[in-house]
């Protein structure tokens, strides 16, 4: 009887130890706190791929903070895990920002995004060519080898117009009021503040939330 009882007692002891470890982990305080380091949205916003964890950057070409953020977010994107999809989405709450959003999506439609994305920041912020009209945008793209007809077709295309409208709707649903903002999986918004003082800190909060989302999938 003693021989049979020993393995049973050992099994119960193992279960008890594992249970205690689980409780200990759950009892540990969260590294980042909702309402302090990030905001949970009232209603989740649909993501581009429900099978992956989405991270959205809300940016504006005329934003100096977005400009300084570019090297950080590009490096983060290059090293993002396979189950994460990164999306850029332009912010807009005036006519100039809407034109810049159209500029972004037109560059994607024309197939020159990789060549022009960083250069558009330079054009606006360093050279003071604000690209705030269709004519200025057309001149810029033609300087990159895009024909006038190609620009006209892309600028007013259904694809670009729909993308601008969708980004505008999402921005409002996210509750964005500044740039850059980061949105994790359509649920959480991160901005710099007293608790998240640097852009590097923003990305650390993103990594935390990505892991939290991964564990719940």
UniProtKB/TrEMBL annotation:
Top-level taxonomic group: Bacteria
Keywords: Disulfide bond, Periplasm, Redox-active center, Signal
A GO-annotated cellular component: periplasmic space
Major localization listed first in the record, in broad terms: periplasm
Positions of disulphide bridges: 63-66
Pfam families: DSBA (PF01323)
Sequence similarity: Belongs to the thioredoxin family. DsbA subfamily.
Protein name per UniProt: Thiol:disulfide interchange protein
